[in-house]
Amino acid sequence: GAPIGVELVCAGHPPPYLLRAPGDLEELCRPGPLLGAFDDASWEPVRLELETGDGIVLYTDGVTDAAAPDIVREPRDVAQMAGAGADDSAEDIADRVLGAAMADSGVAEPRDDIAILVLRACPAARLHGVYGSRAAVPNR
Asked: Coil, strand or helix: which one is 57?
């Protein structure tokens, strides 16, 4: 199919990852100023094209801090947690990241909110499965 054009900015959360069909992950952009925190903030958009099978993995710092203070993960750790293969669904990738984030935390509930959004470009015939997301919110 035709490539899908995407434009995004990083406004405060950890950097998203570009997932290429063979399973390679690369950081898309450096975090910019927190959205809404500064009157004169500006962001440089990142423009890219997704081919069928490519995707984007976005997440909040609840993922990197799920096991803090004992373990504080780096954004590159999230790329390894995603560990996506070319045939993995967006839901599979989001589930894998959430499971890995909670595995070392030693608690049943996350210490902070966790949100994971995985977008995958798929053929038009599969548009119903274009995205997957997972969220875990502590009971407070």
From this structure: strand
Cβ 30 vs Cβ 15: under 8 Å: yes
**Quick one: the chain helix, strand, coil %, rounded to 5?**
25, 25, 55
Mean pLDDT throughout 94-117? 81
How many CA atoms lie within 13 Å of 106's alpha carbon, on the beta-carbon side? 5
Question: In terms of pTM, does the model score above 0.70?
Answer: yes
List helix spans (H) across 38-127. 61-64, 75-82, 90-103
- Two structure tokens written together for 20: 């290429």
pLDDT digits (tens, 9 = 90+) for 118-139: 988 876 644 444 455 555 555 4
SS3 51: coil
| Average pLDDT of the segment spanning 93-113 | 80
